[in-house]
Each structure stands twice: as structure tokens, then as C-alpha cells.
């Protein structure tokens, strides 16, 4: 189990990790021995004069800096330490003791819609009695606290080094227990249940609540041996390992950045922002921890502004933290960094009220922050009623009220949006702005206005998308988001735009451009385009390009591809506690001719998470393809009995029945999948095709018409509907679909 102290914890590896390097070393020694043997048996001419001896000097490689006891920092940096004491960073994670647990554990019970949890103490230990992974109530010990306000969560020990985050949390403001997922029917069968992989704190949470964290998952034993340097977010979580800095402090030498691998005061704000983004971004890890001094996308894959996570105007929708919002802002473009507004040690704002904003937005029209580009600032009294339309100091008179609206997450945690945007179309504040202004200024379509057309599949959508991508001043995260929309609007222009962005300066854009190009070109035609990306300086870009060429790897893609695809494999191997990584490996092995490893990897994915249906379906497909159809059908049928609410299983069962020639029994399963997940257009489309193929053409047309109302950009639905109309002699209807399609994307090659 992790060790809650301030001492540097030695990384404990499984012996297996040392086997392959040792084997390679032995092979090299054996080869050297053979070479010397052959050389000894070959007569050599003797030189007439002694041969000069070449003296080579090996470069001295400095050992990487190490974590030190955080208390060593506090001796010199007393002001920063005072700010840090008691902060959310310092107290992000603590051992559960009477001093750190404010919640009521006096044998009280909390009843949710599905389960009852009882909280009690055994001496100075804190315990819960709650349904476990089998649905039966059991006693579990609370090991650690998570957070301090406005709520506190608790991490439960369940064995094998696992810590799980309990979904019943303590409201520190109202002094009450509450459930983080009310009304969602969370019980032991639900993926959100505290015992499930989605609530595993080793993978999901602890990295951002500790300093120097390593998950240390052992795939062979299915155990964690997670370690950290110290609890809470300490100095070295942001500045990096401090051993070289301690050495510099003692000698005042000439070490770069005073012994740190990064300079958070670098003129380029990206260094600081990406340091904060390691935790303050919605992202997926690309390994076990991060490497200080590397770019964010060397260690993580941050999300773009997807439908699920952000509103059309880019404001926070799901729990996305701050980075994705801030990356869209004019603030980020002008060089504003997190520490311009927040004290990084106390986490508090640097000034009360509007003071932080007035550093730049003031009557002088000048920025008080030297590193911020003040060009374009207006000299204006932003606190005047003429601007706020409210009396100064009253509610709705503060900058954040209009420019940083927020939402509650985790039940009671209010967070402000950090895009600092002008209120957008559709929200109440924007409508009020229109009433205040006597005339609307003419302007080019904004990103959010274009996105309404693009995601709504409205006339002019393709042109709006292309015009936005043609801009040179679009924030990288918005450009990456729009590139993800290109697949719905193919054309020659779309391909040109995607190809151009393969060379964009921002790694997030290059990564998204690869995905866009792959929707337009067959793999063989991507090889030449991806050449530079296989050597990209950022890992996330290299591995997406390599993976995208897997299907043509047999033709030989060269050492750069080999190295990049090995990196991709190593990323998955570093995430073996996750079912997703095991599925990725199975697909990699299948595509690269290592078929003997596929089934074992898929079964391991299901061991990690029995409810991870993509792995279950892939296993069934693998069994079918290898002559084990009956086993595949039984696998899906048995799981469907247990989880009839799983749309993917219903869909898969329907497809398997169709492949066996039983369309009649397939239709109810396909219909149920479409009903369970109406947002998944593929389910509705396949059901419509099955209806058509079974002779129910009118019903098929009705389903496609309904699908196009929800997803007007769905090209497959449009193509099939036109075909079905023509088959039934409904040419005017077919022409109507065709004309609306031309208004949507006149350059679509399918229209030719």
C-alpha cells in the first residue's frame, strides 16, 4: 500500500521488468565473444610502427534529479510555505485521522435511492458498511481523505493495493452526507458504483492529489503498489524533483534554472500553463506519471471541445476543470498565465472583487503585468454602471458574473468557466446585451455561431466549417475541435485544410489533423503525408500517426514508424490496469500479425473490467472469425441476459443473428439498441438497413427520416434514404433530400 510520509519512496519494480534488458545484454556479450574468437583465429599483418592509441572521452551524463523531503524546501522558502499551509493543494489528500476527518462517523446511515451506507468508528479508525462489488453489505476501512471543501471524499481500502473513491461524500458547508450521483440508480451493477474501475483512485485520482506519484501496477498479479513522495500537492509537484536545486542552494553553482528542469517564470507562458494542465485539464494519461520538462502531450492526451464536455459556445458542460476553457480565451492568446490571477501557493486570487481583472482592463488601458501583451486594451472604467448595468459592489456587477459563469459539479462544488468569453448566442446574458445595444455591429461569423450550423447540420454548415479552419487566429483547441467535425463534411477543400494542419505549430492540432486525414484518404496514401509526424517532437502526435498506418505496415514503413509504433505499444503496456489499454493491445497484435496474443489480451481486458463491452464484442468477433461461432454467440447471449440495458450488446446480438440468416429475430435487438442510445446514429442506421433488407421499406424510410432530423449531417443515412425513395418511385422525395444535402455540403463527392 502507499506510504503516507514525506520520505522519498523507492520505486519497486516487478523482477519481470528487468528480464528483457538482461537478456539483450547477454546476447550482446555472446556476440562480442564470437567476434573476438573469429578475430583471434585470423592472422593479422603487424604494423611497422606502433599504432596510435585513440583516446575517446565519453560524455558525462548527469543523473536525473531526485525527489527530496518537502520540508527541505520550507527552510528557505518561508513565505511560499506560509501561503501553502492549509491550502487546497497542501490538504488535497491526507491520512484519515480524527484531525483530518470532519464528517459524522458516529454510527449514522445515509440512504440513497439504491443503497444504504453506514458510517462508524473503531477507536481512531473510520469505517463504512456499504454494498461491495457483489452487492452485499460489508465493512471497509477509510484510508485517506480527499479534498477539504466544499466537500470531502473518502478513499476505501479493498485489497491488492486498490483504493476506491466512495461516492457518498461529506458536505463541509451543510454538514451532511450526500451522494455524488443522485437519481442515477447507482448500485453495484452500475459503472459509477464506488467499487468499479471508474472509481479506482489509483488510476483516476491520486496523481493530482499527491507529489511524485507512481501507480506501479503489476499486470501479472493484478495488484497496485502505488507510491508517492508526499501527500498533497507540494513544491516538487510543479517545480519538479529538487535534489539538484538543493545542491545549487548549497553551492550557488551555475545549474540551469537553479537546478530545476523547468523554469515556471519562462517568458513563454506555455511552460507554466502546461504544468498546471497536468491536473487542471480533462485528459487521458500516456504513461505512469509525467516527465518534468516535457510538453503536456508527451504525457497526456487532452480532450478537445466535444459535444459531451462543452456547450456549443465552448463553456463548461461536463466536469472538465479549467485548462480546456482557458485555452480558448483571448487571455491565453495574450500571454496571461495562471499565476497572473492566482497565488500558486495559496490557490487564492491575487486581489479581491474585480481587482484581478483590473490589472489589465482599466482606465489606463495598459496591462500591469509585464509578460502580458496589452495591445488592443481599451482605456475604460469597467466598474462603471454604464458597463456593468448594475451598481458597483452589488450582485451582477462583477466581471465574473457575465464573463465567467459557472456550474456546480460533484453536487456542491461551484466552478467558474475560464474562457472569459463575451456572452454567447442563446444565453440570457447575450439576449440582455442585445437590448442594451441599439444596433448590432456587423462581424464575421464567430466560432460558436459557426458551430451551431456545423453540429446542427444546417444549410451552409460545410462552408462555415471551412471558413473557420481557414482563419489564422483560431485558438488551437478550437481548431482541433473543428478538425474532428470534418469527417461529416468531406470535400477536396476539407482534405486540403486537414492536410495543411498536419504541420500546425500546436501539437493538439497536428494530432487532430491526423484523425481528420484518416477519414478521407486510404492508408497507402497517408504514408508520405505522415513521414514528418512519425518523428514529431511530441509523443502523442507520433503514436497517433504510427497507429493510423498499421494496416499498411506490411509494406515496410521504415525505422521511424517502427520506433513510433513501439512507443504506442509501450503506452498501452504502461496502462495495463485499464481494460481500454488491453483492448488497444489486442487490436495492435491483430493488425501486426501477432494473432496468438489477441485472445489472451481481450480476456485480460474483461478481467480488468467485466462490464467493458467493447472488449467483449471484439472477443466475440475474434471467436467468430476463428471458427468458434457457437462460443461467440453464447458469450454475447449470456452477457445480454445479465445486461439487457447494454445497447452495444443488443446491437451485436442483432448483427450476429443477421450473419446467421435470422433477420426476423435480429430486428428486435437492433430496434432495442437504437432505443437505448438514440444519440448513436449507427444503431439507428443499421436498424433501418435491416428493415429495408427484410422488406419493410416504408418503415426503413421512416427510421432514416427520423435519424436525419436528429443528425442532418449523417451521410450514410442520406445516401440510403435517397436510394430507398428511388426504389419506391418516390423521386420527388429523393430530390428533396438531395437538394438539402447540396445546401449542407455542395462539395461532397457523393453528390457527383
TrEMBL record:
Start and stop residues of the TPR repeats: 647-680
Record-annotated membrane-spanning stretches: 20-38
Ranges where the Doubled CXXCH motif domain occurs: 335-364
Chain ranges of the Cytochrome c-552/4 domain: 72-100, 200-240
InterPro entries for the chain: Cyt_c-552/4, Multihaem_cyt_sf, Multiheme_Cytochr_ET, Paired_CXXCH_1, TPR-like_helical_dom_sf, TPR_rpt
UniProt GO molecular function: oxidoreductase activity
Entry-linked PROSITE patterns: TPR (PS50005)
Keywords assigned: Membrane, Signal, TPR repeat, Transmembrane, Transmembrane helix
Protein name: Tetratricopeptide repeat protein
Organism: Pseudomonas spelaei
Amino acid at each position: 500500500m502507499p506510504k503516507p510520509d514525506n520520505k522519498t519512496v523507492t520505486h519497486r519494480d516487478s523482477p519481470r521488468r528487468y528480464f528483457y534488458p538482461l537478456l539483450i545484454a547477454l546476447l550482446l556479450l555472446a556476440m562480442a565473444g564470437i567476434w573476438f574468437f573469429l578475430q583471434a583465429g585470423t592472422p593479422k599483418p603487424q604494423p611497422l610502427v606502433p599504432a596510435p592509441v585513440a583516446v575517446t572521452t565519453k560524455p558525462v551524463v548527469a543523473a536525473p534529479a531526485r525527489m527530496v523531503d518537502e520540508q527541505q524546501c520550507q527552510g528557505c522558502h518561508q513565505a511560499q510555505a506560509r501561503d501553502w499551509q492549509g491550502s487546497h493543494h497542501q490538504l488535497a489528500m491526507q491520512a484519515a485521522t480524527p484531525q483530518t476527518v470532519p464528517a459524522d462517523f458516529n454510527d449514522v446511515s445515509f440512504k440513497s435511492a439504491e443503497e444504504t451506507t453506514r458510517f462508524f468508528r473503531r477507536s481512531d479508525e473510520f469505517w463504512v458498511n456499504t454494498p461491495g462489488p457483489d452487492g452485499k453489505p460489508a465493512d471497509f476501512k477509510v484510508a485517506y481523505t480527499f479534498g477539504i471543501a466544499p466537500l470531502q471524499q473518502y478513499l476505501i481500502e479493498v485489497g491488492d493495493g486498490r483504493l476506491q473513491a466512495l461516492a457518498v461524500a461529506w458536505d463541509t458547508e451543510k454538514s451532511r452526507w450526500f451522494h455524488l450521483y443522485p437519481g442515477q440508480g447507482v448500485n453495484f451493477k452500475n459503472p459509477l458504483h464506488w467499487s468499479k474501475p471508474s472509481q479506482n483512485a489509483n488510476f483516476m485520482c491520486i496523481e493530482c492529489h499527491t507529489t511524485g506519484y507512481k501507480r506501479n501496477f503489476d499486470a501479472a498479479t493484478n495488484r497496485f503498489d502505488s507510491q508517492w513522495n508526499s501527500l498533497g500537492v507540494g513544491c516538487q509537484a510543479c517545480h519538479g524533483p529538487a535534489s539538484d536545486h538543493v545542491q545549487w542552494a548549497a553551492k550557488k553553482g551555475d545549474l540551469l534554472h537553479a537546478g530545476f528542469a523547468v523554469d515556471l517564470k519562462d517568458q513563454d507562458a506555455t511552460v507554466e500553463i502546461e504544468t498546471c494542465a497536468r491536473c487542471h485539464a480533462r485528459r487521458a494519461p500516456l504513461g505512469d506519471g509525467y516527465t518534468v520538462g516535457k510538453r503536456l502531450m508527451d504525457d497526456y492526451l487532452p480532450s478537445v471541445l466535444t459535444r459531451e464536455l462543452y456547450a456549443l459556445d465552448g463553456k463548461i458542460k461536463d466536469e472538465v476543470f479549467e485548462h480546456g476553457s482557458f485555452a480558448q480565451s483571448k487571455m491565453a492568446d495574450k500571454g496571461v498565465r495562471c499565476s497572473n490571477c492566482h497565488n500558486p501557493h495559496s490557490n487564492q486570487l491575487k486581489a479581491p472583487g474585480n481587482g484581478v481583472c483590473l490589472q489589465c482592463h482599466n482606465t489606463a488601458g495598459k496591462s500591469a503585468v509585464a509578460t502580458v501583451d496589452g495591445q488592443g486594451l481599451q482605456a475604460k472604467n469597467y466598474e462603471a454602471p454604464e458597463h456593468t448595468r448594475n451598481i458597483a459592489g452589488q450582485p451582477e456587477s462583477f466581471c465574473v458574473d457575465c464573463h465567467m459563469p459557472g456550474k456546480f459539479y460533484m453536487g456542491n462544488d461551484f466552478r467558474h468557466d475560464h474562457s472569459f468569453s463575451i456572452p454567447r448566442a442563446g444565453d440570457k446574458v447575450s439576449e440582455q446585451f442585445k437590448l442594451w445595444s441599439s444596433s448590432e455591429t456587423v462581424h464575421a461569423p464567430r466560432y460558436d455561431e459557426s458551430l451551431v450550423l456545423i453540429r446542427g447540420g444546417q444549410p451552409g454548415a460545410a462552408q462555415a466549417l471551412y471558413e473557420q479552419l481557414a482563419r489564422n487566429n483560431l485558438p488551437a483547441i478550437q481548431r482541433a475541435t473543428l478538425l474532428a467535425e470534418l469527417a461529416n463534411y468531406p470535400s477536396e477543400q476539407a482534405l486540403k485544410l486537414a492536410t495543411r494542419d498536419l504541420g500546425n505549430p500546436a501539437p493538439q492540432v497536428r494530432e487532430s489533423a491526423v484523425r481528420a486525414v484518416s477519414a478521407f484518404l486510404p492508408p497507402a496514401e497517408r504514408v508520405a503525408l505522415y513521414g514528418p509526424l512519425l518523428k514529431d517532437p511530441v509523443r502523442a502526435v507520433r503514436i497517433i500517426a504510427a497507429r493510423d498506418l498499421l494496416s499498411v505496415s506490411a509494406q515496410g514503413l521504415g525505422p521511424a514508424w517502427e520506433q513510433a509504433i513501439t512507443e504506442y505499444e509501450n503506452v498501452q503496456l504502461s496502462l495495463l490496469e485499464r481494460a481500454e489499454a488491453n483492448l488497444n493491445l489486442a487490436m495492435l497484435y491483430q493488425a501486426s500479425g501477432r494473432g496468438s496474443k489477441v485472445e489472451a489480451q481481450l480476456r485480460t481486458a474483461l478481467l480488468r473490467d467485466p462490464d467493458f463491452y467493447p472488449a467483449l464484442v471484439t472477443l466475440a468477433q475474434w471467436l467468430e472469425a476463428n471458427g468458434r461461432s457457437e462460443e461467440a454467440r453464447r458469450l454475447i447471449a449470456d452477457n445480454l441476459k445479465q445486461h439487457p440495458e447494454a445497447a452495444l450488446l443488443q446491437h451485436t446480438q442483432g448483427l450476429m443473428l443477421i450473419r446467421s440468416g435470422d433477420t426476423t429475430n435480429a430486428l428486435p435487438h437492433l430496434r432495442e439498441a437504437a432505443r437505448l442510445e438514440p444519440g448513436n446514429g449507427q444503431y439507428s442506421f443499421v436498424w433501418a438497413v435491416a428493415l429495408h433488407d427484410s422488406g419493410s421499406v416504408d418503415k426503413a424510410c421512416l427510421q432514416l427520416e427520423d435519424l436525419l432530423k436528429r443528425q442532418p449531417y449523417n451521410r450514410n443515412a442520406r445516401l440510403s434514404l435517397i436510394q430507398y425513395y428511388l426504389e419506391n418511385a418516390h423521386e420527388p422525395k429523393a430530390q428533396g433530400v438531395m437538394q438539402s444535402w447540396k445546401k449542407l455540403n455542395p462539395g461532397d463527392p457523393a453528390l457527383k
